[in-house]
């Protein structure tokens, strides 16, 4: 990508779906080799470390079914994250928002604030993506960024999410 004009490089960096880690990885991987063995070794170490950082980042899946009554223009609007998104989130969520995703700072702002189309969609997401990692009765800290409660298992978390955060999992 080093061969791109500056304007195209800036457009790539400004795209919302591009994480800073991805840009750093691209820069590290597509930097030309140096003449010094020591500099070349350092370039490779930097490339490896940036790829490790990129692997730790989560991305949205990209594939989402479009509902017939949703306009394409609405889907293309981007949500720019405020400086302290976690501090600005209300304790009470929309009924179909995932409290695990709200608390996950590795996700983009749009993915953190996503509201599912139906309660069943949220429930499937909640179990498949989050609760499956916990055993029955295992203590679970509430993942909402403004809540510090630890609960005694998945059922207690689901009840807490509905009563306190108003989201129906």
How would the blueprint of this fold be written?
Blueprint (H helix, E strand, L loop, with lengths): L5 H9 L5 H10 L7 H20 L15 H5 L8 H4 L10 H4 L6 H4 L6 H12 L9 E2 L8 E2 L2 H10 L6
Antiparallel strand pairs: 1-2
Helix pairs in contact: 2-3
Short description:
The chain has helices at 6-14, 20-29, 37-56, 72-76, 85-88, 99-102, 109-112, 119-130, 154-163, and strands at residues 140-141, 150-151.
Description:
With 169 residues, the chain is mostly helical. It is 46% helix and 2% strand. The chain is built from 9 helices and 2 strands, in the order H-H-H-H-H-H-H-H-E-E-H. It has helices at residues 6-14, 20-29, 37-56, 72-76, 85-88, 99-102, 109-112, 119-130, 154-163, and strands at residues 140-141, 150-151. The protein has a two-stranded antiparallel ribbon with strand order 1-2. Strand 1 and strand 2 (150-151) form a beta hairpin. The longest helix has 20 residues, at 37-56. It is elongated. The chain starts with 5 loop residues before the first helix and ends in a 6-residue tail after the last helix.
Number of helices: 9
Spatial extent as radius of gyration: 20 Å
Mean pLDDT equals: 77
H/E series: HHHHHHHHEEH
Poorly predicted runs are 68-77
The termini sit apart by 44 Å
Based on secondary structure, the structural category is mainly alpha
For the sheet with most strands, the description reads: 2 strands, antiparallel
Percent of sequence in beta strands: under 5%
Oligomer: single chain
User: What sort of overall outline do the alpha carbons produce when their principal axes are compared?
Assistant: elongated
Order of neighbouring strands in the sheet with most strands:
1-2
Helical amount? 40-55%
Tell me the number of strands: 2
């Amino acid at each position: 990508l080093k061969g791109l004009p500056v304007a195209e490089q800036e457009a790539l960096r400004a795209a919302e779906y591009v994480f800073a880690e991805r840009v750093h990885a691209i820069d590290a991987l597509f930097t030309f080799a140096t003449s010094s063995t020591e500099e070349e070794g350092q370039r490779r170490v930097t490339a490896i470390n940036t790829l490790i950082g990129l692997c730790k980042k989560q991305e949205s899946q990209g594939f989402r079914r479009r509902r017939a009554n949703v306009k394409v223009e609405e889907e293309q609007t981007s949500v720019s994250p405020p400086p302290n998104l976690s501090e600005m989130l209300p304790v009470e969520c929309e009924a179909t928002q995932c409290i695990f995703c709200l608390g996950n700072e590795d996700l983009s702002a749009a993915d953190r604030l996503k509201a599912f189309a139906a309660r069943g969609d949220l429930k499937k997401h909640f179990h498949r993506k989050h609760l499956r990692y916990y055993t029955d009765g295992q203590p679970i800290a509430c993942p909402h960024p403004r809540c510090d409660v630890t609960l005694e298992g998945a059922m207690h978390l689901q009840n807490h999410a509905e009563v306190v955060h108003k989201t129906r999992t």
